[in-house]
Write a structure and sequence with these properties.
It is built from eight helices and 14 strands.
Amino acid sequence: MASHGVEQAKRNAAKAAVAECFPKDPRFVGIGSGTTIVYVVEAIKELGVDISRVCFVPTGYQSRQLVINAGLIPIQFDSLPDHVTLDIAFDGADEVDEDLNCIKGGGACLFQEKLVAMRAKEFICVADHRKLKNHLLEKWPTIPIEVAPIAVRSVQAQLRALGSPDPKIRDGHVAKAGPLKTDQDFFIIDAPFPPLVHRLDIAAGKVADRKAGAWSVEELSATIRSIEGVLEVGIFSGPTGPEAAALGTKGGQRPVACYFGMEDGSVTVRKAKPAGIPN
């Protein structure tokens, strides 16, 4: 598919997601990072509704500039009043599996992306058809992990012990300038693993056996997250926002729906399966 076709697929997905999901009279809206989000902001501007009182919460420097350049009102995450929950958050993904678990962090904004997703009533994922796979790490090669620079070597060693054959520090845009730094001045480690087992697999009888290298999405995410020096893991899984609210727990990071722009110009919508399916 030509690059212009991919861009049109992103635009189609963004227009459909915004048209169907943008709430009436929202007060706070999360805006993620990446190339697809350009079209989300474009679609919001084209809605024809009054958004003069809406505050848009970006997930990093790039998305903040996008909001400002569109003439929208940005508000930093740490400026939100304590009681505020975002009405909705839109973001992209590097890969999405059948259970709507996502890998994010290709743009190195995964920590702030997760903060915003988990502060929202609902997280809507927008992507093109290339991102939809049966399992995470089926096509996307690695899990992005945000790590304190001082802990990089020890984190790499522990990732190897978990079965990642070659976890690498991500270089900046100019390799000789050293590793890429996130908005938090942390490094990114990209860690390859075999494709991950999700809840639908387990419900169908598949066994997640970490000793055999078959990690479940939830277990691998939690295990990496527990390593000293790790700030955040680029796996978005677990409850959706409404599920988390029903449980009375911290917000959800799994999207309630994903909109995929397809090669033929159509848009495919996948909605999250109920939480009753075993993890």
